[in-house]
Amino acid sequence: MKKAIIIGATSGIGRGVAEALIEQGWQVAITGRRIAALEQIQTKYGAERVLIAQMDVRSPESSAILARLLNQLGTPDLFLYSAGIGWQNRDLVPETELSMVATNCEGMVRLVDEIFNHVKQEARAGRLTPKQRVHIAVITSVAGTTGMGSAPAYSATKKMQSTYISALCQLARMEHVPVRFSDIRPGFVATEILNPNKHYPMTMSCEKAVGHILRGLSRHRRVIIFDWRFKLLVLFWKLIPRPIWERITFIKN
Ligand SMILES: NC(=O)c1ccc[n+]([C@@H]2O[C@H](COP(=O)([O-])OP(=O)(O)OC[C@H]3O[C@@H](n4cnc5c(N)ncnc54)[C@H](OP(=O)(O)O)[C@@H]3O)[C@@H](O)[C@H]2O)c1
Q1: Dist CA 132 CA 65 (whole Å)
Q2: pLDDT digits (tens, 9 = 90+) for 130-168
Q3: Positions of E strands within the chain
Q4: What pairing do the DSSP bridges indicate for beta strands 134-139 and 78-81?
Q5: Phi/psi class of residue 170: alpha, beta or left (left: φ > 0; alpha: ψ in -120 to 50)?
Q6: Residue nearest to atom 19 of ligand 1 (CA)
Q7: Backbone phi, psi, residue 205, to 5°
Q8: C-alpha span between 198 and 194 (Å, rounded)
Q9: To test ligand 1's pocket by mutation, which of 41, 139, 193 has the most ligand atoms within 8 angstroms of CB?
């Protein structure tokens, strides 16, 4: 039975991936702050298939909680960091900016480091099979393509996540750690993170997004962007020279 640990699985993309994997026969360990949502998933699928742990990724305690899950579940095939928050912040309220840094950056670093070091330790102790590689995936965003004036911390934290994964890819080769990485960059997906009072162009259903993510993961894609419209958008976005980008004022999302 394949095993996954999903951080931030009480709603949205993390929950969708968790339920899809359970339905494919995986055993999963899922986390989030909303214990009632975790218990609901566990009741639906059974405790032998679903381990749960309440976790706030902003707390240093979260490393120890992940270590306990690794003890219970064993080394997983997939580790997915889906916890995240995002707000626009044109009034530049520092607390709002810093809350995104804490969840999207600090939380990710703490937990991705924990799993990376766990795999390194297990490999060095000879407890992994020669072909075993742990897949570490992080849900970043196309918003990390470049800094966005309406969402400074959100875009910057997503860029940081992508850069961090790239750094760890290189580190894994330097240190011979048997991991592979995926940087999953969704466009707009209909989940709780979107403001229900706003219109977002090219929004995809969560179910469809999960399908794209599972396909990308099964093909071991290093970067997963979906669908073709967002692929094209990112392609052109990257071509915009910085002095021009910084003068664009009409982008509201
Ligand atoms: N939906 C989109 O359009 C979109 C686009 C690009 C990227 N993304 C990224 O996709 C990821 C998942 O978001 P989503 O769209 O699925 O939104 P969501 O439904 O709001 O899910 C966010 C998940 O993160 C967890 N979370 C948030 N803060 C946490 C904390 N402090 N500690 C632990 N868990 C925490 C939430 O669980 P609890 O509240 O129970 O803690 C929830 O399970 C995020 O990183 C987001 O930036 C989303």
Answers
A1: 24
A2: 999 999 999 999 999 999 999 999 999 999 999 999 999
A3: 3-7, 27-32, 50-54, 78-81, 134-139, 179-186, 223-226
A4: parallel
A5: alpha
A6: 12
A7: -70, 155
A8: 8
A9: 193
pLDDT digits (tens, 9 = 90+) for 74-124: 999 999 999 999 999 999 999 999 999 999 999 999 999 999 999 999 999
- In this structure, the residues whose C-beta lies within 6 A of any atom of ligand 1 are 8-14, 32-34, 55-58, 82-86, 103, 139, 141, 186, 188-189, 191-194
Which position has the token pair 């607390």?
95
Closest-CA residue, ligand 1 atom 32, reads 56
- 138 has which bridge partners? 81, 183
Mean pLDDT of 66-72: 98
Distance in angstroms (rounded) separating the CA atoms of residues 237 and 142: 10
C-alpha of residue 123 to centroid of ligand 1, in Å: 31
Ordered by where they begin, the domains of the chain are 3-245 (3.40.50.720)
Q: Cα(188) to centroid of ligand 1, in Å?
A: 13
